[in-house]
Structures are given as C-alpha cells and as structure tokens.
C-alpha cells in the first residue's frame, strides 16, 4: 500500500496561495514532493527539480486566460464567479493587479476538500488520484508533554475534538507531537478518547456553528504551533474554520503572531540553555 498523500502549497512563481498540488510519499522521498503543479501559472517540479518555471504574467489578459483554464477545470463556467468565490471576493482584474505587481494572492478555497477530495465528499478537480491519509507514526515522543488548557465544552463536545483532527490531518500525516497534544487535550477536557472513525479531514460545514468558537480556534492555533512552527496547510484549514464560524480573521492572525512570538522565545531560551551547557563543559575541560 502506498504512503502517498496530497497537500496544497503556495506557488513560488506566481505567489498564489494553495494553488500548487503536491504529491508526497515519504517511502520514496522524505520532505520533497514527487510531483508539484500550480493550477494557476503551470509551475511544475519533480522531486525538487523544476521542470516548468511557470508563466510570468505580463498583462491582465494573460491572467484572465489562466483563471479561465483553472475555472473550467473546476467545472465553473463563470470566471468572475470563480474568482469572487475563491479569491476572497477579488475580481479577475484585481487578482491580475496583484499578480502583475508581484504580490501574494490570498485564496479561500475549501482547503480540506482540496487536500483529501475522496475523503471529504466534494473535492476539487485538477488533482491526480487521491492518495490515502498517512496515519500516526509509532515512533516514541521525545519532547516534553505539552501543557493543554481545554476550552469550555461546546454544545457538541466532539466539535473541538474534530476541529483539532482537521488541523492534525492538514498536511496529510499525523506527527507524534500532534497526536500527544490532541490526546492530552481530550483527557484534560474529560472527553471520550479519539475514535478511529473520527480520524478524517473534517470540513467546517460538518461541525455546525458553536456559540463560542474563539476557545476552539485558540486550541487549533496551539496545535498548529506544537512543533514551534506552523505549517501553511494547517493555517489555511484554521482560517477556513474561522471564516465559516464568523470569527475575525484579524483576530486569528493576532493569535498566530502571539504563538509565533512564544515559539521564538521558547527556542531562544533553549539555545541559551544549550550554550550554557557547552560553556560549563569547556570550563571543566580547561580545569
């Protein structure tokens, strides 16, 4: 059975968020995509080697043509509707202005559907055959346990659990630290353990609308930074949940910045602690 899975990533050429579909298989190559293709500009790579650098858009007409191809591949004949629905309300002309200026273009695609179209029920076209989700590693956890403060249990106590699972599966795999975080969170909240049928990429529409989404989103952000740096796919999943639940995206970015600062401070403290150990060793050696 193949260990391959798909993730979305941002295009290094046109800078459109989530436009690159990557096929990864850790049994073949660790940390590098077997194939990667941008649905906007045509950038393509194989095992890290660029095979097509992608189109350099020179005018609005070329941008609209690329958007038309992408829209048609997604089964949407109305290009402007495709743009407004998937590019945070931007028109094709506004998208073109960003691209021609060399600016990053934000999208709001249904990230979970793109990541696992076969599992989530209504995936996007344009990807190759859906690969299975890579399950948790049996490797022992070497980091110290994460201290987790559970939020108030929402109307359906499994909403927070499934929201965390959606983040955990965002990059197609379950890292040991993430599973420790989720299991500890569930235990601290006094909830039933994670069930096998809950290990799937939940979409925002699957979980309803909690009355107080902020505490759930805070837990999702904490999970995204459990390894001290967030993954782009994880963050896009969190943003889609926040958007669906009507939570301020500005407030979400503030949460991310706070978590980023905390992670950086933690690494700095670790660095100074390691330097201290080295200095002690050097002093003893000199004696």
Q: Major β-sheet, in short?
A: 5 strands, antiparallel
Helix content: 40-55%
Strand content: 5-15%
Order of secondary-structure elements:
EEEEEHHHHHHHHHH
For the residues shown, what is the average pLDDT? 75
> For the terminal residues, how far apart are their CA atoms?
58 Å
Q: What is the rounded Rg?
A: 21 Å
Helix tally?
10
Low-confidence stretches: 110-148, 279-287
Q: How would you describe the overall organization of this protein?
A:
The protein is α+β, with helices and mostly antiparallel strands. Helices cover 44% and strands 7% of the residues. The protein has helices at residues 60-73, 79-86, 92-100, 111-115, 117-120, 158-168, 176-188, 213-224, 232-244, 249-286, and strands at 5-9, 20-24, 35-38, 44-46, 49-52. Strands 1-2-3-4-5 form a five-stranded antiparallel β-sheet. Residues 110-148 and 279-287 have low confidence and may be disordered.
Structure summary:
With 287 residues, the chain is of the alpha+beta class. 44% of the residues lie in helices and 7% in strands.
Give the topology.
Layout: E1 5-9, E2 20-24, E3 35-38, E4 44-46, E5 49-52, H1 60-73, H2 79-86, H3 92-100, H4 111-115, H5 117-120, H6 158-168, H7 176-188, H8 213-224, H9 232-244, H10 249-286
Antiparallel strand pairs: 1-2, 2-3, 3-4, 4-5
Helix pairs in contact: 1-3, 6-7, 6-8, 6-9, 8-9, 8-10
Short descriptors:
alpha+beta; globular; 287 residues; 5 strands; disordered C terminus; 44% helix; 5-stranded antiparallel beta sheet; single chain
């Amino acid at each position: 059975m193949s260990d391959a899975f798909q993730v979305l990533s941002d295009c290094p050429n046109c800078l459109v968020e989530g436009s690159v579909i990557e096929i990864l298989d850790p049994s073949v190559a660790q940390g590098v995509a077997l194939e990667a293709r941008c649905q906007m500009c045509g950038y393509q790579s194989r095992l890290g080697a660029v095979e097509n650098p992608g189109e350099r858009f020179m005018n609005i007409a070329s941008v609209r043509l690329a958007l038309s191809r992408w829209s048609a591949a997604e089964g949407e004949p109305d290009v402007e509707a495709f743009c407004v629905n998937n590019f945070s309300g931007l028109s094709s002309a506004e998208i073109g202005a960003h691209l021609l200026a060399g600016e990053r273009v934000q999208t709001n695609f249904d990230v979970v559907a793109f990541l696992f179209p076969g599992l989530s029920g209504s995936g996007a076209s344009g990807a190759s055959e859906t690969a299975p989700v890579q399950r948790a590693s049996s490797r022992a956890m070497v980091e110290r346990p994460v201290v987790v403060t559970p939020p108030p249990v929402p109307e359906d106590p499994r909403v927070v659990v499934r929201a965390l699972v959606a983040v955990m599966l965002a990059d197609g795999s379950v890292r040991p630290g993430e599973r420790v975080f989720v299991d500890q969170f569930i235990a601290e909240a006094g909830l039933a353990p994670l069930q096998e049928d809950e290990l799937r990429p939940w979409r925002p529409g699957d979980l309803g609308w909690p009355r107080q989404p902020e505490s759930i989103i805070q837990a999702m952000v904490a999970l995204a930074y459990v390894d001290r740096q967030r993954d782009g796919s994880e963050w896009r999943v969190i943003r889609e949940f926040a958007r669906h639940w009507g939570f301020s995206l500005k407030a979400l970015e503030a949460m991310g910045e706070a978590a980023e600062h905390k992670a950086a401070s933690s690494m700095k403290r670790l660095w100074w602690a390691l330097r201290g150990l080295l200095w002690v060793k050097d002093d003893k050696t000199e004696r």
